[in-house]
Design goal:
alpha/beta
Length: about 180
């Protein structure tokens, strides 16, 4: 099984990349779902503050690769030849995936602060917000988990500043380039 991971700052396009891959028949495991499940199990609302606090708690209690470790059983259950991991947030997670899945490919999705803020304002998720200060705080929190280092270690970097159609073409091209065309 080939495993590809997607990393990037909030609202850079990781979720769109995953939707496109899923439409191509590639199963997607969303790392944020592991955190959302933990928040739900604690009876908390899925706000940005609660999700961030839970992510910090899991990493504090179980190590910086805690969320990756939660994904591994789900990855091993997959029978598809290609699986995508959406939402890698740190270099410790990348190290785990690289050590367990030979040929692991990491793709970094990159967008400007202005573009990401506009996307957050438009998408309407429960953990979203509308201020630039809140996005800066979230960026800072996630960079504390090794996000920048993970992005820098990516095998492929995609700049996502154009239309969704152009981004979709780029996603298809990259998936084919790394030999993961289902």
């Amino acid at each position: 099984m080939k495993v590809i991971g997607v990393v990037g700052l909030p609202a850079s396009g990781k979720g769109e990349f995953s939707k496109i891959a899923a439409a191509m028949g590639i199963p997607v495991i969303v790392m944020g779902d592991m955190i959302r499940n933990a928040v739900h199990e604690e009876g908390m609302d899925p706000t940005d503050a609660n999700l961030g606090a839970m992510a910090n708690r899991l990493r504090s209690e179980h190590g910086m690769d805690a969320i990756a470790q939660l994904c591994i059983p789900e990855l091993r259950r997959q029978t598809a030849p290609i699986v995508l991991i959406d939402g890698i947030r740190g270099d410790a997670e990348v190290s785990v995936f690289r050590s367990i899945f030979p040929g692991f490919h990491l793709i970094s999705i990159e967008s400007s602060f202005k573009t990401r803020l506009a996307r957050i304002k438009a998408r309407g998720r429960s953990d979203d917000f509308e201020s630039a200060d809140e996005l800066r705080k979230r960026d800072f929190r996630e960079q504390g988990w090794g996000l920048r280092e993970a992005m820098q270690s990516a095998d492929i970097h995609i700049l996502n500043e154009k239309t969704l159609e152009e981004f979709s073409h780029e996603v298809h091209r990259v998936i084919k380039q790394i030999g993961c065309d289902p």
